[in-house]
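Because discrete structure vocabularies remain unfamiliar, we reproduce here a specimen of the format, pairing a chain with its fold in token form:
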Amino acid sequence: MLLHIFFIFVNRKFIFSKEKHSYSVMEIIDNINKTLKDDLIKEIHSGSKVSIAASCFSIYAFEELKAQLKDIKELRFIFTSPTFITEKVNKQKREFYIPRLNRERNLYGSEFEIKLRNELSQKAIARECAEWIRKKVCFKSNSTGENMMGFATVDDKAYMPITGFTTVELGCDRGDNAYTMINKFDAPFSQQYLSLFDQVWNDTSKMQVVTEKVLDNITNAYKENAPAFIYFVTLYNVFREFLDDLSEDDLPNEATGFKDSQIWNKLYNFQKDACLAIINKLEKYNGCILADSVGLGKTFTALAVIKYYEGRNKSVLVLCPKKLNDNWITYKSNYLNNPIAKDRLNYDVFFHSDLSRKSGKTNGQNLEYVNWGNYDLVVIDESHNFRNGGKITTDENDDNPRENRYLQLMNRIIRAGVRTKVLMLSATPVNNRFNDLKNQIQLAYEGESAKIDELLNTTSSIDDIFRQAQAEYNVWAKLPPEQRTTDELLKRLSFDFFEVLDSVTIARSRKHIEKYYDTADIGTFPERLPPISRRPDLTDLNSAINYNEIYEVVSRLNLAIYTPSDFILASCVEKYVDTESIDGYFAGHGMAGREKGIRRLMSINLLKRLESSVNSFRLTLQRIKALISSTISKLDSLETTDDCTIEIEDISSNLDFDDRESDMFIGGKKTKIALQDLDHIAWRRYLDEDLESLNLLLLMLEDITPEHDSKLQQLIADLKYKFAHPINGNNRKVIIFTAFSDTAQYLYDCLAAPIKKKHGLNTAIVSGDIEARSTLRLPQREKMDFNKVLTLFSPVSKDKETIYPHIHDEIDVLIATDCISEGQNLQDCDYLINYDIHWNPVRIIQRFGRIDRIGSRNKVIQLVNYWPNVTLDEYIDLKGRVEARMKVSVLTSTGDDNPISPEEKGDLEYRREQLKRLQSEVVDIEEMNTGVSIMDLGLNEFRLDLLSYMKDNHDIEHTPFGLHAVVPASADNPAGVIYVLKNRNNSVNIDHKNRLHPFYMVYISESGEVVINHLSPKELLNRFRLLCKGRTTPDMTVCREFNRITHDGKNMRKYSELLNDAISSIIHVKEESDIDSFLSGVEGSLFTEEVRGLDDFELICFLVIK
């Protein structure tokens, strides 16, 4: 046992060793009066032997002493805690694992050497350090759980305690030490430390050589990195908490085998991404809105989700508009033309309108006995039909409350019975109100906001989030047009709003898919040629009338035939208030309300049918005339019999598919009134007036036969030209869309035979009202049907060779109604004619989406629109006038009333603007809204990118900070740098505007101009992905140029300055926000949280665009 006597003199201690009777000098180094670095510079000489036991090793400490270290004989380094050892530590032991990870990362600088790392000199230092290590150094690590103290020896000198070999220990940086007391010992006392080091170094049971591991890691800091690797390093750091929080229950369980299904293997990569994201969201939040743009295959993505849940024995319901029934039925049926028949899907299909019915049958199922509350998943196609939310309506006496479809869906399916997940499909989930979105999202949490508030990572409740978002939208909507930009709106919306969108929506545009996905295996979207606009006259007859003359007569029609209840005698009214029925539209609405709705629809319908075709308009006039004539006959017979009833027929078959979805056609479809209960004299007067107008109209149209139908003749000319001059090879396929079955039938009757005779091409018709027909004769007297027509029309996209190998002919001309305007892939065709312009502009885009699809074999596609030969303003204004007139009672209408609401006026303006655009360009559906689109806001696809990468690349967590890659610049991506930073003092995320906080990304050009600032993380990540994904090896051409300019990383001044500029831009935005808040009267908000600059941020990695 040594007996020590200490004599303290200033900073020196004299140690007397009794046994050896010798003195040893001990000195205290406090890194203030004297630094460890200064002392080591003095003590390390050429040929010195250095031994260090410490928790970590930093290349920046080497940089400080490299002049001395490069000539030593050797350095032995022991990591005092397990570091770089081979055994993988169980990740569940986070308290052990995380410190170890930090120790390993300290190679490239500890948390207190961030400033050095931010100087971007890491690459050059790491290369020099690695070369030195290969010649002079051996690293070993403690492989046990035992504690080891840190110390160092240099020849005959010893230093203790040494915590880590960093610039903080050397005294170059302050660190967070309150004080430093390092003891320096001379020989012979220092020999005790050297002996201890030798003993530990040679104990193979405790030590593991890790030199190669250290070298590998340091090499990572200076080798050329693949851009794709830097992309995933960014994702790993930004979304690491997502990985930590991820529950296996929220991820698709691949044990179900759904990835072996036919449907999964038919999906494109972006659809697979969406499918997995949807399942994740359904499991975590109970609901999801898939709002991908037209032509991106939402139906197939949803079918893959259905397959996943059916594989888990879940019961699935599909709710769709009636017109899409055939589409959904095909994919669950054991049909030859079902491309996924092997998957044996077994979901139920009902219509939106079935929610308002209590009886009847749909697809063979009796609605009286359907157990609506027993579905585990409901898929709602065209969910925007539910965007107006729940309403309870009453009759004109404020009696008989009745729930609308939204509440029926909520109460009968979602809230009742088992817990129901909700997948909503819509290309237009938002019109011009954020409440549209909220109402749909509410279905996922049963209208109880607390259920989703606890799941969302937000500071406000979902109700408050949408209230604030709508308030910001309202302010934005009043800005001058030049200021009313999407970017301006996005700046106004809170982090919480984006968090909600990110949590429960998936929305990608075609531009997004083209730009950010590798579409080499899929193909691209075809090029859209500028649309062709036709404006044929009504007829070529000089004596015949024009559109405006007809509009004039139509606007005079009262259509009193549809509102007999307006004429019920006051003493008889009570007989016709339905208080008993719980079914049908009369219950809660009353007869009069239903009639007014029908009258309004019929008036608009007349205009639509005139615009569609002379034939369709003529048929409608004849039907109304026949109805009025038979009613007048009954009125004439009233004197001979008192027991006579008037029945107004079901008119829904005369309407387009959108109007047919109206609730007024649910339940009781016929109006029944005893004639003796009517003021038939007054009613008769209105009927006579209409009959006179109808006779006049029919007379005006009498001479317009198909030969003199200018619109039809224009179509014939267009088809003839297309057949003679195909725009893609020899592709002569054409789709002709019309809103009405009558027009479709008229066109088929006029065109099919001549096309077959003159051009040898087959024509077919599908309308949803009549059986499919075609001039193509099938072998063995096979019957033509809806799906067969579509398969023979688009044989490649519909896989005809597999389904109908025995049929060798094709269909080239398809005449169709909107029963196929959604959910069909008909991309073999390259030419689409809108024979009538649907009054909903979105429908026109949806029609075009049948051929405007990714993977098309056609290089170009053409849209042709047939407009009525009047100005667009006249067209829109007429609709407004007629709608206004028809909203009031026949008896009070003077023709001067204008009870049109501001909302309806806004709607007319919206249609006017969009229809104007459609005359000159093909508009993407996400660009239709003058308000806001939810496209390109979610971040979930990046999380899924990371998840996929992590399955095979676990070691990304050991990647050092400060790495970079180099990619070539382009016209869209100017030369510059994208920096990925981490804020260290949590003080710049003002108003929760940065969705990636505490991470910040900035794209800055070489001239110092900010290309994309940190408040646009979605755009930055998209750009990052575009620049990096698929680039799995370094681009040596640009790497060599970068290394030449920076002298292999030794001169990084320019990029260090750009980093300062990037951080300054973040601070500038924060200061602007502070000033805005201060001027708005927010107390104490001016620069309350100071951000000093570079030291507040840690550089994670950067991408050089050269």
About this structure: The chain is about 40% helix and 15% strand. The longest strand covers residues 1097-1105. The mean pLDDT is 78. Residues 586-612 form the longest helix (27 residues).
